[in-house]
Amino acid sequence: MKKCKVGIIGSGNIGTDLMYKIERSPYLEMSVMIGIDPDSDGLKRAAKRGYKTISNGIDGLMDQLDLVDIVYDATSAYAHKRHSELLTAANKKVIDLTPAAIGPFTVPPVNLREHIDQPNVNMVTCGGQATIPIIHAIHRVVPVDYAEIVATIASKSAGPGTRANIDEFTRTTAKAIEMVGGAKKGKAIIILNPAEPPIIMRDAIHVLVEEQGHEEAISKSIHEMVATVQKYVPGYQLKSEPIFDGNKVSVFIEVNGAADYLPAYAGNLDIMTAAAVQVGNEMALHLQQKEGVL
Amino acid sequence: MKLNVLDVTLRDGSHSVRHSFTVEQVRAAAKGLNASGVPYFEVSHGDGLGGSSLQYGLSKTDELKLIEAAVSECTTSQVSVLLLPGIGTKEDLQSAASLGVKMARIATHVTEADIGAQHIELARSLGLKTVGFLMMSHMAPVEKIVEQAKLFESYGAEIVYVTDSAGAMLPKDVTERISALRQALQCEIGFHAHNNLSMALANTIAAIKAGATYVDGSMRALGAGAGNTQTEVMAAVLERLGYETGIDLYNLIDTANDVIAPLMQQPQEITGSSLILGYAGVYSSFLLHAQNAAEQFGIDERDILMKVGEMKAVGGQEDLIYEVAQNLASKREVVP
């Protein structure tokens, strides 16, 4: 089967990590890395691995559009707006890893195929990818009135983009908790911890359910969901059994990364890029099926 | 010499009363603080704007209603709000500012000042007196604190606080940090204490001697852990030391007696557990959560706090408490 050609805009932590994961995809072929700093580590690594590199950003890519079928954007919400307009006008598929949220939210174990024919899909945030599957797992048993997540990540794994726009994390995650997770109301909190050695990404999920008494079914559903996420993020695990207190359910998870680019503590990076590859794979299949019909 | 006392009873004290302040309580306290000539006082959820949550405790009354009530009682005092980027957002700050708040304190962990840049810039553009608040200052060496304080100053902070969130510092630690900031910064410097090691007032005096011009206190010491420097005691001591605070001592004592004492849910004393907070260097608001978890899992709350301290938890990681408690309980079960 012919693979779909992939471009990655943004040669920072996320873009570089994504490159390594795309290399392992049966449906995607890493083609070009696009950055704005020719000296960036990401561009250098891409060139070394034999991929095309472009160091004058989106404008450079627009001159060589035949290099790509699908474009991942790992820049910033601000930059993404223009990237998306240019690329979708040129009929390229866009997978957005910034919190711009122009396209619909996609969290693979919840709604992988729902938006697959959209020109632009958004990957929410690392905290959203780590926690929304659990919220959905509870919601499919009993309706969730309120869901709140607290993502704690190692300071070292938060790049300058994340740091400068921390409100976008909380806002976008909270919105996706409602729209994808199913909660009537969502809230998100992010904490940076500078401890050395760096801490592994951990997430607390606190949920208020509509009625009590479904503890066994909720636990079972959560365990099934954890197994589903583990298929693409093997280091995703429950830190303890879910804690039930009246209509409140608390779940604690830890995300060990695959250490493709940053070390394993940066599970926040992995869950984002691994989820984005899932979406890319599905898009590639969809594109091929469409071509097959034609 | 003139000092600026900032009372945090209606913010840090929120932890102690499990975020249950009512409009009436806030109104009465605000009236007393204003009549006592306290220049600034803070009103927010204990974890700052937007802190109402299952993780930290839900506010019984919307904090914006409490802020509005406090502002309406002020003729000379000015109301401050606390905001922790990652918990509260710029929108929360805008809402508070529209209610007549005059000061914003942007709080980050002592090594993470850069996540507050946008919030400090917004606070300045809203015309608020703007503070950068370095939490858990005991966890970083002096050079790191200086570096982070300079970042806050570069974003536009007019005052930078050394915040002893764990009540873990001794006077020499305070002197060292404040002196270094006094040398490195142009802006004013503040100090916020917790009394877990019974050092709050001693540390506050050390801070002033080293150059701090803003100092925090709370009436009856109402605050997280063993509470803060007791405002009315601090006012009396500062007067004896020859500093000017502009505070009417009797009025302030009356407010502490008549308004704060009746609403306290437990005595604000140094319990075994709050002592452990200071000893292990743990964020003071973990105290009541550790008590709940200890009860739920039938273990010693001190063991939870020591473990959390070992794990180098930072402010906001209350979820770790329940996980640690569950793990301690399960380990105990397998021991024959």
Automatic annotation (TrEMBL), chain A:
| UniProt keyword annotation of NAD present | yes
Major enzyme class: oxidoreductase
Where do the catalytic residues lie?
C126
Which Pfam families does the record cross-reference, listed alphabetically?
A: AcetDehyd-dimer, Semialdhyde_dh
Q: Where is the signal peptide?
A: none
Where's the Semialdehyde dehydrogenase NAD-binding domain?
5-118
Per its record, what are the GO molecular function terms? acetaldehyde dehydrogenase (acetylating) activity; NAD binding
**What are the UniProt keywords, alphabetically?**
Aromatic hydrocarbons catabolism, NAD, Oxidoreductase
Q: Does the keyword Metal-binding apply?
A: no
Q: Which SMART domains match?
A: Semialdhyde_dh
Q: Which residues bind NAD(+)?
A: S11, G12, N13, I14, S157, A158, G159, P160, G161, T162, R163, A164, N165, N268
EC numbers for this chain: 1.2.1.10
- Catalytic function, reaction form: acetaldehyde + NAD(+) + CoA = acetyl-CoA + NADH + H(+)
Q: Which NCBIfam families match?
A: ac_ald_DH_ac, PRK08300.1
Similarity comment: family membership: Belongs to the acetaldehyde dehydrogenase family.
Protein's name in the database? Acetaldehyde dehydrogenase
TrEMBL record, chain B:
EC numbers on record? 4.1.3.39
- Annotated residues that bind Mn(2+) are located at D12, H192, H194
Where substrate binds, per the record, is at: R11, D12, S165, H192, Y283
The protein's GO terms of the molecular function aspect are: 2-isopropylmalate synthase activity; 4-hydroxy-2-oxovalerate aldolase activity; manganese ion binding
Q: Does the keyword Metal-binding apply?
A: yes
Its keywords, alphabetically, are: Aromatic hydrocarbons catabolism, Lyase, Manganese, Metal-binding
- Matching Gene3D superfamilies: 1.10.8.60, Aldolase class I (3.20.20.70)
In this chain, the site described as Transition state stabilizer is at R11
- Manganese keyword on record: yes
GO BP terms: namely: L-leucine biosynthetic process
Q: Which domain of life is it from?
A: Bacteria
Q: Which CDD domains does this UniProt record tie to the protein?
A: DRE_TIM_HOA
| Signal sequence bounds | none
Question: What are the Pyruvate carboxyltransferase domain coordinates in residue numbering?
Answer: 3-253
The family database entries (InterPro entries) matched by this protein are listed as: 2-IPM_HCS-like (IPR050073), 4OH_2_O-val_aldolase (IPR017629), Aldolase_TIM (IPR013785), DmpG_comm (IPR012425), DRE_TIM_HOA (IPR035685), PYR_CT (IPR000891)
Catalytic activity line of the entry: (S)-4-hydroxy-2-oxopentanoate = acetaldehyde + pyruvate; (S)-4-hydroxy-2-oxohexanoate = propanal + pyruvate
Q: Which residues participate directly in catalysis?
A: H15 (proton acceptor)
Which family does the similarity line name? Belongs to the 4-hydroxy-2-oxovalerate aldolase family.
Q: What is this protein called?
A: 4-hydroxy-2-oxovalerate aldolase
